[in-house]
Structures are given as structure tokens and as C-alpha cells.
Amino acid sequence: MLALSCVPSLALADESLAQWAERRVTDGLLKPLANVEGSRFSRSRPMPHARRVRVLQTTATLDKRGRPFVPFALDVLYGTEWHENDIVGCAYRESGALYVKRGDQYRPAAFLLGKNLDPVAGVCEAAPPSTRS
Questions:
Q1: Contact criterion met (CB below 8 Å) for 102 and 111
Q2: What pLDDT is stored for residue 36 in this prediction?
Q3: How many C-beta atoms lie closer than 10 Å to residue 124's C-beta?
């Protein structure tokens, strides 16, 4: 009995899809954004006091190529007021790739870190439901 209590539970080792997505967005986008934000005296938008990640669903959605993704949103805090959906995007579980929406298109999240990256067609867009008879 004592030996079994010393073995970690496999269930505890498994993280949910939502937990994975939150950790991936935090490590891959939130922390890098905090590192590259400029001076408070620049002409750019003021830095938020805080950001938070919201995973928008607990199950994956398939994109038009059949790849599972999880949508997320970043909210920002200015003063005492949270502004929701400041950045929206999705995380792909298989590759770990993060995409963010700018206008009507999705770009790799590194775009927000100053990299000149083109939009990627078909990512973060749910496949139409099957029309089986």
C-alpha cells in the first residue's frame, strides 16, 4: 500500500487541453510581449498594467485542413478596467503554433513581436459541418 502511495498519479500528469493552451499562449506570446514592450514615453499605445489569457473553449475545433486548434483571447488591464479581446487567436496542439487575428486575417503570433510575417490562409477557421445524408 505504501509503495502505491509514492507513485504519482498519471491523471495528475495529464494537463487538459485548456490548461495546455493557456500555458502555451502565456509562454509563447504573453511573456515575449512583456519583454519587447517599449518605453512609456513613446507615441505607441500605452503599455497595459496587466494581461490575461482566456481559453475560449475546452475542446479543439478542426480547421479547414482537419487540424485541431483552440481559440484564445488576451484581455488587457488599463487602470482598473479590463478590456476583453484585445488580441484574439488560436493555438494548434500538434505543432504548438500560435496565430493572431489582425483585420480579417490570421498571422503567426511572432507578427506582434515585430516580425514581418504574411497572413496564413485557413488557420483558426472552423471547417464547415459535414453534410452527410
A1: yes
A2: 78
A3: 22
Q: Which DSSP string corresponds to 12-28? A: HHPPPHHHHHHHHHIII
Per DSSP, the three-state class of 52 is strand
CA distance 124 to 99: 8
CB burial readout 16-29, b (16+ within 10 A) else e: ebbebbbebbeebb
Whether 91 contacts 72, CB under 8 Å:
yes
DSSP string, 101-122: EETTEEEEGGGGGT------TT
For residues 125 and 67, give the distance between their C-alpha atoms in angstroms, rounded to a whole number. Answer: 10
Does pLDDT of 108 surpass 90? yes
